Amino acid sequence: MSEVSIESVGDHVAAVCLHRPPNNFFDTALLEALADAYEGLADTRSCRVIVLRSEGRHFCAGLDFAHNRDQDIAALYRNALRLFAAPLPVVAAVQGSAIGGGLGLALSADFRFATPQSRLSANFSRLGFHHGFGLTVTLPRIVGEQRAADLLYSGRRVDGAEALALGLCDHLVDETALLPDAIAYAATIAGSAPLAVQSIRATLRQGLVERLRLAMDHECAQQERLRSSLDFAEGIAASAERREPRFTNE
Asked: Is residue 38 included in any domain, yes or no?
């Protein structure tokens, strides 16, 4: 099976699913396949709304730095930018955890459904690293500057209930209802005039892709700068060993 699949789940609604369970770590190849899926569905003209989902326990745990420390971050972000540039609305069904770049992926969607058991975190500072995936733009845009600073500085996790209160998710539902409710909501949007929806979406997101491009360039440069730091090595080791990191400011 492909690591990214497409399935029709209703009139003019398609589910795009990641298949790297249980954590659905991404890399450049996976994001490229995901962007190809988005663009391909837009080209069909029959799909009006995408539901983004994942197979397994967690929505997405971002990039697995422990095994991908040499990942070309610039290439990864070029494909991430394609997700934001794609024209169709996206509804994300966020089960389990959306961590680091996985949170960035969730925030690339127009709407997010989560459960009380969901856990969301921009954990980069706990890894001794700079955030990425355009969170410089998307996180303040969704939760406000102060709350974004709190989440980015602390790297703390929030559960589904707090995510709803912060605006990180738009709907909180039981685990068994997560995918059906996300699909039903997508179908509601798909029932509106597609040219109007895409036009309204383009207006609401005017300038977003360019701001994200500039933000990702800066994020990438900062990540490259910190990649060789001792604190980053310690953050990755502590995460792998499930212990508190001991940072030395080096």
From this structure: yes
